[in-house]
From TrEMBL:
The active site is at 61 (nucleophile). This is 1-aminocyclopropane-1-carboxylate deaminase/D-cysteine desulfhydrase. The modification N6-(pyridoxal phosphate)lysine is found at residue 34. The keyword Acetylation does not apply.
Length: 299
């Protein structure tokens, strides 16, 4: 575990120690929270005798890329159900091209059907057509994702004393897992990458309730730092990423961790964090997303 100090003037003024947990360095092909969320799902798939993983994602999904890599590394067949039937008529983007290179079979479905992907009739038809498979939800957020993420807390507690733990949120599974690891102690902050992500509060509470029988209160969801939407890369965010790399020699992804750090620095400026406290921000990886922006930007 690498904890990198972030010497930011705004943190100094606030009297706060700010650290970046480099979870993006934990695995060369399955970095950060993706490996943590998949770890026990892969074990369960094996235990149940499955030889195929079936999962869902958008055209630039970090999750699809991670499941494809996991399948190649473990010898499991992988099927990715991709949102947007029209994409099948276009050249594959870098994310999907890499997923296919890793052995993933890509199936494109229309957006209306995709929204119903977890309904029994839709899922049943997919499994009938494609064959038996261990199903992992979009983003990998299910009950078996939580213990892998909770292990991050155990590793962190063994290394350092801290007061706040910050993470970016897509589907909420990583934050839910961190909450089960924190066991109601300290404070966790989730930074939503999606616009209109208030629904995540319910999803996160539901996951922790199912996992532990507890609805935790030591956390908050920050929804003001989505940067215009999930796959939007504003000039301001790009400038932030480039300046951050110059200051700290760390590349941030354009969808998750970059938005979280924008939020943390803003909240430091506004005095949210207690003076004398230690704030740990988790870099969850996701750098493959830059391939989707490569025609527009250069790092």
């Amino acid at each position: 575990m690498l904890l990198q100090p972030l010497n930011e003037p705004v943190a100094d003024r606030a009297g706060v120690r700010l650290l970046l947990l480099r979870d993006d360095l934990t695995h060369p092909e399955l970095p950060g929270n993706k490996w943590r969320k998949l770890k026990y799902n892969l074990q369960e798939a094996r235990r149940l005798g499955h030889h195929t993983l079936l999962t869902f994602g958008g055209a630039y999904s970090n999750h699809l890329a991670a499941v494809a890599a996991a399948g190649r590394l473990t010898g499991l067949r992988t099927i990715g159900i991709v949102r947007g039937q029209e994409l099948s008529q276009q050249p594959l983007n870098p994310t999907l091209a890499q997923a296919r290179a890793d052995g993933m079979e890509l199936q494109f479905i229309d957006r209306a059907t995709y929204r119903r992907k977890h309904e029994p009739d839709v899922l049943g038809q997919l499994l009938t057509t494609l064959g038996p498979a261990y199903v992992i939800p979009e983003g990998g957020s299910n009950l078996l994702a939580l213990p892998g993420c909770a292990e991050l807390v155990q590793e962190l507690e063994a290394a350092i004393d801290f007061d706040y733990l910050c993470v970016a949120c897509g589907t909420g599974g990583t934050l839910a897992g961190l909450l089960t690891g924190l066991r109601g102690q300290r404070e966790a902050l989730g930074f939503a990458a999606l616009k209109g992500a208030d629904f995540l509060r319910h999803d996160i509470n539901q996951l922790t309730q199912q996992a532990t029988g507890t609805t935790y209160t030591n956390w908050s969801l920050q929804t003001d730092y989505h940067g215009g939407g999930y796959a939007r890369l504003s000039p301001e965010l790009l400038q932030f990423v480039q300046a951050f790399e110059q200051r700290h020699q760390v590349v941030l992804d354009p969808i998750y961790t970059s938005k979280m750090l924008v939020g943390i620095l803003d909240m430091l400026e506004s005095g949210y964090f207690r003076r004398g406290s230690t704030v740990v921000a988790v870099h969850t990886g996701g750098l493959q997303a830059w391939a989707g922006f490569q025609e527009r930007v250069a790092l």
